[in-house]
Amino acid sequence: MSTRLARGGRYLDRSRPLAFTFNGRRMHGLAGDTLASALLANGQMLVGRSFKYHRPRGIVAAGVEEPNALVNLGAGGRFEPNQRATTTELFDGLTARSQNHWPGLGFDIGALGGLAARVLPAGFYYKTFIHPRPFWKHVFEPVLRQSAGLGAAPRERDADRYEHFHVFTDTLIIGGGVAGLHAAKQAGAAGRRVLLLEQSAHWGGRGPVDGGRIDGMPIDDWVNVTLHTLNDMPNVTLRARITGAGVYDHGYVLGYERVADHAPDAGGPRHRLWRIRAARVITATGAIERPLSFAGNDVPGVMLASALRDYVVNYGVSAGERTVIVTNNDDAYRTAIALQRAGLSVPCIVDARPDSSGVLPAQARALGIRVKTGTAIAGVKGRRRVAGVALCRHAGTGTVTERIACDVVAMSGGWSPVVHLWSHCGGKLIWDAAAAHFRPDPAQPPTNQAGDGFVRAVGAANGDLHLSGILPGGTAPAEAPPVPVWMMPLGADIGKRARMWLDYQNDVKVTDVQLAAQEGYESVEHAKRYTTLGMATDQGKLGNINGLAVLSDALKAPVPQVGTTTFRPPYTPISMGAIAGEARGHVFQPIRRTPIHDWHTAQGAVFEPVGLWRRPYCFPRPGECRADAVMREVTGARTRLGLFDASTLGKILVKGPDAGRFMDMLYTNMMSTLQPGRCRYGLMCNENGFLMDDGVVARLDDTTFLAHTTTGGAGHVHAHMESWLQCEWWDWQVYTADVTEQWAQIAVVGPKARAVLEKLGWNLGARALPLMAWAEGRIGAFDVRVFRISFSGELSFEVAVPASQGRALWDALLEAGAEFNATPYGTEAMHVMRAEKGFIMIGDETDGTVTPQDLGLGWAISRKKADYLGKRAQARRHMTDPDRWRLVGLQTLDGTVLPDGAYALAKGENSAGQRNTQGRVTSSYHSPTLGCGIAMGLVKHGPDRMGEVLAFSTTDGGTVLARIVSPVFYDPKGTAQNA
Amino acid sequence: MPEGMGVSALPGARAGGLAVVREPGLQGMVSLKLDLTAGWAAPGVMAATGHAVPGQRQITRIGQGAVAWMAPDELLFFCPHAQADVLVAALSDALKDRHHLAVNMSDARVLFAIEGPGTREVLAKRMPVDVHPDSFAPGQMRRTRLAQVPAAVWMTGPQAARVVCARSVARYAFDTLALAAQQGGAVGVY
Fold first, then answer.
1. CATH number assigned to the domain comprising residue B150
2. Model pTM score
3. Nearest beta carbon to residue A593 from set B124, B131, B168
4. ipTM exceeding 0.95?
5. Which of A205, A73, A262, A61 is nearest to A152 (CA)?
C-alpha cells in the first residue's frame, strides 16, 4: 500500500491541503503534489489499463517519461484526455478519471483471462484485416474505431484562451537542473541575452534528490545561491513550467508554457507557446532511467528506481512498504539508501552484475541492506499489485532460487541521455558502449544557416551522468560502470519473454520485437511500425532503447548499427490550443470588410466569403427568402436603380516609362494604345496560356494605368506582376502599388443611374461620359473618380471615393435614390445580371484549364503584339485543338435551372466504364428578366451546334434536356448599357 | 471633401488591459517608390518634404510628419490626413523627371496606438519581432505581420507603439490586439 510519509517532501507545503477526485472518489493531497504523488499518497497505485490488452497499469515514473498514469482530466470545457499524472500539478478541485477500461478500472472485460495477448500478436492488424475485402469497411474499421485511442475526446468548446509569444535571445538553455543553471551562469556572465527554460515548477533537476556537493555546498543550497545570482543578472530570464518542445532550423525553438494548468481560474491564458529565435541553444535536458526486461515487469508496483526516491524525497510519499531493488548499476543503490533512511524496508537489492563493490553499494551494505549479485528476477507475483518476486541466477534460464515478499519492485536498467532536442534538427548520436547509451556526437551537431553547430548538449543530456563531469566544483560518490542488461535472466524462455514488457502503454513485449525481426522487419523504423514500439503518447521515452537492444540481439547486429528511430518534435505532447494560439472565435481568421460593411450588416445582409472578404450575397427583406431577394434585386437594377458595393474589386496602380510595354505583356489585348481617360476590358493569362484574371484597365495618364482585378484575384495578380518585374524584367522601369483599399467603389446601375448622380451634383466636366471612359471630379461634395463601365448590361457608373468617404457616399446615394426606389443588390444579383449578358466569371467559366479562345474571347487577344504572357502556350497543338470544349449558352426545354456543374452526356463509355461526356455547365441561374433558367457551359464544338439539344445528367441519375443557344440572353445589341 | 465627412475604420475604438489599444483616427500616409540608391533621390525627397531619407528599418519624425523606410525602393510618409494629396503633388512635382510612384494611401490603412507598460509584450504576442528595448527603440520601424495580417510597427516612446495595417482588417487587428492586451496575460519578460 502506498502512503504519505510523516516527514519529508521538498516540494510540499503541508499546511495547504488540497481536495481532488479520482474516478469520483474524493481524495486529499498537499500543495506541491503532482496528481501522481497525491494518488500514491491516497493508496492508489492502479491508474489505468494498457491500450491493446487492457492490462492493469500502475504509476511507473515521476516525470515526463510516464507511460501509464494518463488520465482524463477535468470536465466540460476543461476536459482533456491523456494527461500525465506525473507532471500534472495538483490543485484544489482537480477531477481525474482513469482511461481505457470497461466497465471499471478494477474489473475490465477486455482483459479477461489474458486472452488478448494470445490473439493480438505484433503485426496482427496487417495480417488479419486484409481478407475478406468487404470486412474492412463493415467490420474491422468500425470495431477498431471503437477501441482506438486511450482517453475520451472532449465534447465541449474549450473554456480557456491560449496565445503565442515571440522572443529572441542569444543563448537559450533548455533544462533548469544543475547543468542548465551552470550554463546560464556562464552565458549570463559573458553578457549574453540568456533565456533559461525549466519544464517543471522546480529548479535543480535531479541533483537535490541524487545528492553530492557543489563548491562544498549541498545541491539545494547551491541551486538557491545560483538562482539568486541569475535573478540579479538583467540579461538572464528564468522561466519555469516551459518545456523545450522542438528545435528547428535557423535556431527556431518552440517552448510550451503551462501558464494556468496548476491554477485554472487565474484568468490568464492557459497555455502559451513561446516561439523563440536563439542564436545558440544549450540542451541541459538530463537523462531518463531505463526499465529492465523481466517477466512480469508491467505489474503495478514495478517502478523506476529513481522515481521511487523522487516520491520519497520530493513528495514525502512511499510507493509501498517492502521494496526489492533490481539493477545493473550503482545508481539504483541511492534508492535503497533513500528508502532505508525514510524508514522503509528494503529486503534485497538484486544486482545482475557479478560484482558490486563501489561506494554506493558499500553504503547500502553498511545500512544493513542485503545485496545479491549475479542475480535476476525470474518472475513477479501478483496481478493488480506486486505481491512478491522470484529470484534466479542472471546467467541461467530462470530456475527459481528464492522468493521474496514485497509490494514494490524498483528497477534500474541504466540511464539514457535525453537527446531528443539535440536530434530534432539533425544532431547525430554516438553509442557509448561503456555507459551503454546513445549520447550526442559533438562532431556532428545540428547546423545553422552558416553551417556551424548551434546546439550544444551539457550535463546528463550529454552523457555526463556524474556531478564531477558536469561542473568543476561538483563532487559525488564514484560509480562503477553499468553492465548492459537487455533481458533477465539471459537464458529466459519464450514464456518469460512473452511477459517482458518493453512498451507499457502499447503492450509491446520482447517477443513482439523478436517476431518482427524474424519476419524480416530489420530496419528499426519498420520494426517500430510493425510492433508499435515507441508509438504511444510517451513516444518511447521509457522503452525504446531496450527495444532497440532486443532488436539488435535478434538481428545479431551491434546496437549502433541498428540505430534509433527518428526523434521528432514535440518532446512531450503539447495542446492543440497552444498551437492555435489566439486564433479562435472572433479572431480565428481576419475578415476583410469594406467601408460600407456595417450598413450591410445592419440591413441583415446574407454574406458570402470571397477570399477573406465577406460580401453581401443579397439583402432579404422581412419574410423574403434568398431567391426572392435576388430576383427583386435584379429587377430593381434592370428597371430603375441598383446600388452595388464594388469596393472589393482589386485596383492596382502601374506606373513608369515602361508601364505600357509591361501592360501589353500582362494582358492578351493591346493596352499601350489605350488613351488617357479611357477604359478597356482586358484578359490576363498565366504563362501556360490559361485565363487567370480579367478586369477593366483605365489609363490615368501617359505613364500610369489603373488595373482592376477580380475581388479574389487582387493579391495574386499583384504578386504576379511583382514576380515578373523583379525576376524577369528587372530592368524595366515600372512601379506597382495595390491601392484596392484606398478606394470605396459603388456601382450605380440602371435606367435611373444618371439621374441620381445628376441629382447629387454631377461636376465632372464631360457631361455625357461615354461607355468605357472615366473622369475625375466631384459629385456633390465627394471627390470621385467615375468609370462608365457595365457588368450588368445596364447604364452603369462605378463611382470611386477615398475609403473614408465611402459610407457617406453610399448613404447619400440611398437618400437621393429613394425616389427611384434605389435597390442595393448583392453578389448573386450581380452574377445573374452578368450571366444574362453572357459575361464570363473568373472561377465559374474558368478553372485554370480554360483559355480565352475557349470562351469566345478571341476578340480580346491582340494579333499585332509580338508577345504576351501565354501567347506561346496558346499556339501549342492541344490549345488549338478544334475539339476543345467552348462556351455556349444553354436553355432548358422546360424552363428549369440546370444543375451547376452537370455534364452533357455523349454516347458510350470510356475505358474506366464511365459514361462519355461532351460538355459541362459552368454557371446556371434562374433569370427573373427572362423568366426561365439560363446557363453557360463549355461544349465540344459548341458554337457550331446552335439549336442542338443536349442531355445533362442530374445527381439523382436522371437527365434534363437543354438547347445550345447564344450566351447573350439579354439585350444583345447593348441598347441599355449604351443609353 | 467637407470637414468631418471622412471617417477612419474604427472611430473611437479603445480597449484597456496590459496596455491601452486605440484607434487615433484618420492619418495621412503617402507611399513613395523610387530608387533610393540614386543620387537624385535624397535631394528630391528633401526638396518636396523637408525629410532626409531614413536608413534601413528606420523612421524619422519632424513635427507632425514622419518618414519610414519600407523597402530598398519604398518610403512611407506620414502627415495630417488633409495634407496627403498636397504631399503627393509636391513629391510628384519634385520628382517629375524621375521614375517614381507617389500615391495617397491614407484611406487604405488603419493606424493603432498601443500605450502602457505592457506595450512590448502585446506586440510580442502577435508579431515575430524582437521587441527587446536593446533591439527595438523609438526610431526603429519593422514591416512584419500582426497575427495573420501584414503590418508595420514602430515605437513612439519606451512604452508606446504605433501599428499600421490594411483598413479592411481593422476590426480583426483591433480585436486581436485587444485580446493580447487582456488582463491576466502579462508574461513578465519586458
1. 3.30.1360.120
2. 0.94
3. B168
4. yes
5. A73
